[in-house]
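As a warm-up, study this chain.
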Amino acid sequence: MPHTVWACACVFWTPWANPARLARCQSCQSRAAFRMLRRSELASKCDILTLEVEHVNAQALEELHLKGVPVQPLPFVVKLIQDKYDQKVHLQKHRIPLPDFLKVDSEAELHEIGEKFGYPMMLKSRFGAYDGKGNAVVSDAASIPAAWEKLGGKAGKKLYVEKWAPFKMELAVMVARGVDETMNVTMRTYPVVHTVQRDSVCFTCLTPPVGVTQKEQELAQKIATDAIKSFGDARGIFGVEMFLLDDGSVLLNEIAPRPHNTGHYTMEACGVDQFEQHLRAVLGLPLGDCHLRVGGAMMVNILGQGSTPELTAQTMAPLRCALRVPDAGIHWYGKDGCVKGRKMGHITVTGFTPASALEQIRPVLKAVDGEGNSSSIEVPHKSSPSVGIIMGSDSDLPTMKDAAVVLDDFGIPYEISIVSAHRTPEYMYEYATTAADRGINVIIAGAGGAAHLPGMVAALTPLPVIGVPVKSSALSGNDSLLSIMQMPKGIPVATVAIGNAANAGLLAVRILGAANPGMRQKMAQFMANEATTVEKKRRKLEQVGWQAYLADSK
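Now compare it with the structure written out below.
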């Protein structure tokens, strides 16, 4: 079958040209003229111009675009996004949900807005803000003068203010927008990530986001997609940051028209990473697969601690730690110097589940602040359970505890609860339908007598369900075993021997290990230990004889 191989050569230009070279440019009237000359020269060498940061001369891009040089994302989009107030006005016109916002031209006007919005509220620079720079929290009326001065209001800088969004967590979605062979628009969205900020700078990103329902994730992806649709024919990758509120609603915070920090995880976790996707989009090539190819991924930014040798070594400590972490992707940007607070690199760890990725990256998180200071690290949440152990009654607990013991031995987080199919059917429905959204990957359900619980749960969840027949006083558990085994076609339930919850735990480990090499290694070691135990018993029996063996066993 014939196929096309695509190749792309990239030429880079930076507005921060070498000052010495600028000084030697005798033919230019000014550095600005020299930069324009260099932009024109660059444009002449390219089929298309794109960008990796929005803080550029949008007017110059517009002039090149009008001369017939293809520029993506379109210059008007770059210019629109550069002004955060105009960005919000544009999105509001397209009915994208946003926090309330107003332009503010004076300190007195900010006082009036404070009476309207209430406190706290967020004062923001319209231009040039990034990584928390250009934002100031106005906690009360007394803090207005300091915030106004901090952001340059007294010096005439353009500002606007947003009503405080009482979010329970921050989310982000990368959206790719391109065209197909017939120039029809194509769009792809990456998974939703949960972001945690430290000093207003992105610190960690986790996907899938634990504690965010599927409905909430779909809403976030729709809002992000609708926002990018509003940019006309613009192509490329866009980072969309949002707020998730307690009531499940989502508000858009801001947009970046480029590969974004919250999309770095895609390099290890997705079929096509955000950087390649950006090139595909601007070049009109088919967009690639955005889906996760792992169960979970967590990214942590490495920020500069300072330029001294000691502080530089402290900055790099998490990277050295990550060398010992399975499935860790280490990225050092090679920037000049080690400026405090500057993004110097990042580390992404993947796992079978978000919980396993978080567990794997914990040593790296502890290394971020150095020995003894890990208590100051903001971790998104505690390890979420990968396995749910449920039973119809507390009388089943003496049996079901054996599954918990196995999971403890393998270091797998789990939750355990009483869920009665007959006495609490509403809770059973809620548990089964929300388990996947909460990060559960396997359910172990124990039941005696009629034993409806495993089958009912399996009918409500896409997750694998393992049924444990609990021994009953009437029929010794045979009724439970037969009930669990006789599921109708299309409702599969794995079943273990009567009362053998330990095997249910081991089966859950094997299910999790299907896509987790580390878990498979633990299972292989468990099997080797079992073989060693049996081998020791065999040798002892052969050496001492059956009578001495039994006597010693008493």
